[in-house]
């Protein structure tokens, strides 16, 4: 049985920027707003990230940079009698700005990069990642001075081996105003607050609600529920999947709420789709 854990980072100053995860069984974390640039090292098992359009797979030994301001679904799986183990290093904007000042780094290029970027390693980076795992299991993780020094060490090594990622890490621009319809159609299944959708489309909350009503004719919350239910109806009609298998993937937190909303819109509960010969 997959385990569901919702994870959200909400502060620019991260309390524990180094985190180690271990799962003995398959784990689905659902959706997560990636607020900070995150260095992800796959110790064992596999990690699949899905941004609503493409999947990004990281296997044992994989090292990736997950860009900030992304909506992602996480799937963690152990492999070949080994638990799922991963190391995450979160790089806050405050830390990156300070690092850029110290190293006199300036970014001018506006190149476009994918949400997940594979990083190259060498012997020095391998040794560094092993040392960070030791810190993650010790009390030293609570010492901000030591942790800050480890973050700087890692970033220097990464930039030496992957200089192109400076264009990502030290670009401090905020999301710009983008087309609402295409963005919402691509991301309606992510269970995040309305103000997060507003930010990612380059709008204040008030501007987002105003523009949304003009574009779709209804408030965001009402549209999201209706759109998710339409997708649920399509899946239940065309596949053998059940409500319990799809409600989380479509942005609903609670199976009971999903079932009641579905019945209210279509007149029958999700299970009734099978009785009528659908699926």
UniProtKB/TrEMBL annotation:
The record, for PROSITE patterns, names:
HTH_ARAC_FAMILY_2, PROKAR_LIPOPROTEIN
Could you list the residue ranges forming a coiled coil in this record? none
Alphabetized, the UniProt keywords read: DNA-binding, Transcription, Transcription regulation
- Protein name, per record: AraC-like DNA-binding protein
- Known PANTHER family for this protein? HTH-TYPE TRANSCRIPTIONAL ACTIVATOR RHAS-RELATED
Q: Is Metal-binding tagged as a keyword? A: no
Task: State one molecular function term (GO).
Answer: DNA-binding transcription factor activity
Q: Which InterPro entries match?
A: AraC_XylS_family_regulators, ExsA-like_N, Homeodomain-like_sf, HTH_AraC
What is the native source organism of this protein?
A: Pedobacter zeae
> Signal among the record's keywords?
no
Which SUPFAM superfamilies has this protein been placed in?
Homeodomain-like (SSF46689)
| Domain HTH araC/xylS-type: from-to ranges | 178-276
């Amino acid at each position: 049985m997959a385990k569901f854990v919702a994870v959200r980072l909400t502060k620019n100053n991260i309390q524990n920027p180094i985190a180690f995860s271990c799962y003995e069984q398959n784990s689905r974390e659902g959706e997560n707003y990636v607020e900070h640039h995150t260095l992800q090292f796959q110790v064992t098992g596999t990690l699949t990230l899905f941004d609503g359009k493409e999947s990004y797979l990281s296997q044992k030994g994989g090292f990736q940079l997950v860009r900030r301001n992304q909506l992602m679904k996480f799937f963690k799986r152990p492999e070949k009698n080994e638990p799922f183990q991963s190391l995450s290093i979160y790089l806050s904007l405050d830390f990156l700005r300070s690092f850029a000042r110290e190293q006199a780094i300036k970014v001018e290029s506006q190149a476009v990069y994918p949400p997940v970027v594979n990083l190259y390693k060498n012997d020095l980076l391998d040794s560094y990642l092993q040392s960070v795992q030791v810190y993650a299991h010790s009390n030293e993780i609570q010492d901000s001075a030591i942790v800050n020094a480890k973050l700087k060490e890692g970033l220097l090594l990464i930039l030496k081996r992957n200089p192109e990622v400076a264009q990502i890490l030290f670009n401090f621009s905020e999301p710009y105003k983008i087309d609402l319809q295409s963005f919402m159609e691509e991301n309606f299944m992510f269970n995040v607050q309305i103000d997060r959708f507003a930010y990612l489309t380059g709008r204040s909350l008030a501007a987002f609600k105003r523009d949304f009503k003009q574009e779709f004719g209804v408030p965001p919350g009402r549209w999201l529920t209706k759109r998710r239910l339409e997708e649920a109806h399509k899946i239940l009609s065309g596949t053998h999947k059940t409500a319990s298998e799809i409600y989380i993937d479509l942005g609903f937190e609670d199976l009971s709420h999903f079932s009641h909303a579905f019945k209210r819109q279509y007149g029958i509960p999700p299970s009734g789709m099978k009785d009528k010969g659908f699926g």
